[in-house]
Design goal:
By secondary structure, the protein is α/β, with parallel strands linked by helices. The chain is built from 7 helices and 11 strands. It has a 7-stranded mixed sheet with strand order 1-11-10-9-2-8-3, with helices on one face. Strand 10 and strand 11 form a beta hairpin.
Length: 206
């Protein structure tokens, strides 16, 4: 009989500290906090940012929803088109161009924190922000796994029941494309975290 490693309960703050400790020091780096909107990955990304800041490191949270494509593209086929949501809803090319690439050696060293205002469907009119030599950027949102080049990748996973319960009625249509995306992606996160109870997460051994 093969022993199956047990999940490892961890306090949320300890998890945030562990993630920051895993990131390279002395240079710019990206952390990806991947998870469905129902997991509120942006909120946890802010916790990671605060831990980094308490350690004297400059850090910025990037919400993937600030890098959506214009409504004319998102809703080209319908407002609930599952294939569009899974493949072209978010502008990952712009995220790479405006946030990821500038942090790489030889990059411009300035990032654009917001590209598009999803609510008004207009340019966010954000200005470029200078990145410190050891700047930490935490990108948070759904379907990042396998799409973002990051020093550390975290996936906040929810059970199907929890995902349904925490997703609003008007967004229930996103559940199937989310499930399909995570079934198909082959990349593995550095931290796979059970997130049904955000106050009592647990790391799932790979």
């Amino acid at each position: 009989m093969v022993d199956v490693p047990a999940v490892q309960p961890i306090f949320p703050d300890r998890l945030a500290h562990t993630i920051v400790e895993r990131t390279p020091r002395g240079r710019r780096a990206v952390v990806a906090i991947d998870g469905a909107d129902a997991a509120d990955p942006v909120e946890f990304a802010a916790r990671v940012r605060d831990v980094a800041a308490s350690d004297g490191r400059s850090a910025t949270v990037i919400d993937l929803h600030d890098f959506v494509r214009p409504a004319s593209l998102r809703f080209e086929y319908s407002r609930t088109d599952e294939l569009t949501y899974r493949t072209t809803w978010f502008d990952f090319d712009a995220l790479d161009r405006e946030v990821i690439a500038p942090l790489q050696p030889g990059g411009r060293g300035r990032i654009l924190p917001r590209l598009w205002d999803e609510a008004t469907d207009r340019s966010a009119r954000a200005t470029l922000v200078d990145a410190a030599p050891d700047h930490l950027v935490i990108v948070a949102g759904p379907m990042l796994l396998g799409r973002v080049s990051a020093a550390v990748v975290v996936h906040l996973t929810l059970s199907a029941a929890t995902l349904r319960r925490r997703t609003g009625e008007s967004e229930q249509w996103t559940l199937e494309p989310l499930a399909e995306y995570y079934r198909d992606v082959t990349d593995r996160p550095d931290f796979l975290v059970r997130w049904d109870h955000p106050d009592r997460p647990a790391i799932i051994p790979s």
